[in-house]
Specification:
- By secondary structure, the chain is an alpha+beta fold.
- The chain is built from five helices and four strands.
- It has a two-stranded antiparallel ribbon.
- α4 packs antiparallel against α5.
- The protein is elongated and about 95 Å long.
- The two termini are 47 Å apart.
């Protein structure tokens, strides 16, 4: 008897996090509810997996594209930041250092028309170093924001997965008496779902 009760308790506890069976009006059919916890965990473990679980497959490439874009800019900004940081360190630590960093061979120089082939000034170098640090931080923040929105979207979609709106949505306005101190005329609003 104790073994049977223990078995029932363990089975019940194992079903808490997973989908539960819900009986419909017709007792011959059962349907499985959609688990918001599972969608959230899937989306946390692998971005986009929660959207696929929620059968919103078109959202997964958007999530992947957003995170991929943030990672691309983070890598690009990190490389430029390291280049400028190394250059600034070498200039400050060794007064005899001969710099080879020009405006033409700096990152994104090919976007500048007629970039001069002269050694980059220290002020310009420090400005670019600060700019790349800000952009790098912004790239990390954007990646975390896209990842968080991915999790929130999967959770909300999972909660609304089984939400059914009846075709009988109506608003009925009818006169009704209001009894506060004495009978008075009033309106009653009834919204049916």
């Amino acid at each position: 008897m104790i073994r049977l009760l223990l078995f029932i308790v363990l089975m019940t506890l194992s079903e808490i996090g997973s989908a539960q069976l819900v009986n419909e009006k017709d007792s011959t059919q059962t349907k499985r509810t959609h688990s918001a916890k599972k969608a959230t965990l899937l989306s946390t473990a692998l971005p986009g997996a929660g959207q696929i679980y929620n059968k919103k497959i078109w959202k997964a490439p958007i999530v992947w594209g957003g995170i991929g874009t943030c990672v691309y800019f983070a890598i690009n900004n990190r490389q430029a930041f390291r280049l400028y940081k190394t250059e600034a360190f070498n200039r400050e630590s060794n007064p005899n250092f001969i710099s080879t960093l020009t405006y033409q061979n700096s990152p994104y120089a090919n976007y500048l028309k007629n970039a001069p082939n002269t050694i980059m000034e220290s002020e310009d170098l420090n400005d670019r170093l600060d700019k790349r640090k800000r952009w790098l931080d912004l790239s990390y923040f954007a990646a975390v924001a896209v990842y968080g929105l991915n999790i929130i979207d999967a959770n909300v979609d999972a909660h609304l997965f089984d939400y059914d709106i009846s075709p009988d949505i109506s608003l009925r306005i009818a006169p009704s008496p209001v009894f506060i101190t004495s009978p008075k005329a009033g309106l009653s609003f009834t919204l049916n779902f």
